[in-house]
Design brief:
By secondary structure, the protein is mostly helical. The chain is built from 10 helices and no strands.
């Protein structure tokens, strides 16, 4: 799965170009937090969480070898605007996270088929090592700040209950990742084990374009902005 380095890099690129207003984002910190939320309660990224929720519930996907989360189903369940015509920035961010997970993993599955690589433990290790390495080639600077406004959105997050202590721990975890990413940053073209620089360059652009087009459609009032495409 994409690391938080990768998810945050996508979010930062979109916030820089075309910008939050063009994408219908009102609270940047809530959007950044939403980009992390599907992973928080799975139990790997954040320490000292209050509880765990199964991956199948947070990502709407079967946890098979390389799962492809159902961002379209997430949109159908939670993407309806409220009485003011708005969707929570947390929901927008979570949808973006699931799009990224889906698209990266779909491209990985296609790569494995095209290169006749068998799904196995060794393949999973090589794949994740490549994702971790790619994440360290990216420049990231923004962790979500858990403001009173963000906590207000957390109170009405529809998929599952969010506890404030877990949100503050998520902020701390992301801040630590940003520091680690700067210390262990990788310059130039890494020596990937399996997927390669072209795979990541092409997939990163495709994922960014997918998220951008969906959020731009939302900002323009398209009722099917987050549907599967």
């Amino acid at each position: 799965m994409p690391s938080w380095n990768i998810h945050t890099a996508h979010a930062e690129q979109l916030l820089d170009d075309p910008g939050a207003q063009s994408l219908g984002i009102h609270d940047v910190d809530a959007f950044l937090l939403g980009n992390l939320l599907p992973d928080v309660y799975v139990g790997y990224m954040v320490k000292n969480i209050t509880r765990k929720i199964k991956y199948a519930e947070t990502h709407l996907a079967d946890p098979n070898f390389v799962p492809e989360p159902d961002y379209g189903l997430f949109f159908k369940r939670y993407g309806t605007p409220d009485a003011d015509g708005q969707v929570s920035d947390l929901i927008l961010g979570s949808w973006a996270h699931l799009v990224a997970d889906h698209d990266y993993n779909k491209h990985v599955n296609e790569f494995l088929v095209a290169h006749d690589i068998k799904p196995c433990t060794e393949t999973r290790i090589r794949k994740q090592a490549d994702f971790d390495l790619f994440g360290r080639t990216l420049n990231i600077t923004r962790a979500p700040q858990i403001t009173p406004q963000v906590l207000k959105q957390c109170e009405s997050y529809a998929p599952y209950e969010l506890y404030p202590s877990d949100m503050f721990n998520t902020q701390a975890a992301m801040e630590a990742i940003i520091v680690d990413n700067a210390v262990r940053h990788v310059d130039g073209a890494p020596d990937y084990q399996m997927l390669g620089a072209d795979f990541f360059a092409e997939t990163f652009d495709a994922v960014t374009n997918h998220i951008r087009s969906g959020l731009a459609a939302y900002a323009a009032g398209d009722p099917l902005w987050g549907a599967e495409r």
